[in-house]
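During the no-cost extension, the postdoctoral fellow (Dr. R.K.) reprocessed legacy sequence entries with the updated structure-token encoder. One reprocessed record is reproduced below for audit purposes.
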Amino acid sequence: MWKQNSGKPVETPQFDEQMAIDLGAKFLGEVVILGMAASILGMGFALKRSNDIKRKEEKQTKFENQIRFQTLVMDNFDAHRQLMQAGVEKLEKVDRGIKEMRKGKF
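Re-encoded structure tokens follow.
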């Protein structure tokens, strides 16, 4: 093992079987804990992303429904306007007829 760029090899102590097992178990435990933490973090991110997508779709649907409703309201107003315009035209025709009757041109 080369440490601190001293240029000399450093001897590491030879572990007996029990120390090697303990160090291996600690290392394996750390790997398992790190793996679990990473997977939990990944699942949390995926869940948040799917919730954000769902909220965005719900907002889009709500917006589309509002547009449909406003279109229906505007169509309804237009239909009423046309009916009222036809009624006004009929009243103007009747008014002209009454004025002509009063003048004696009937």
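The CA atoms of residues 24 and 30 lie 10 Å apart. The first helix runs from residue 17 to 103. The remaining legacy entries will be reprocessed before the final report is submitted.
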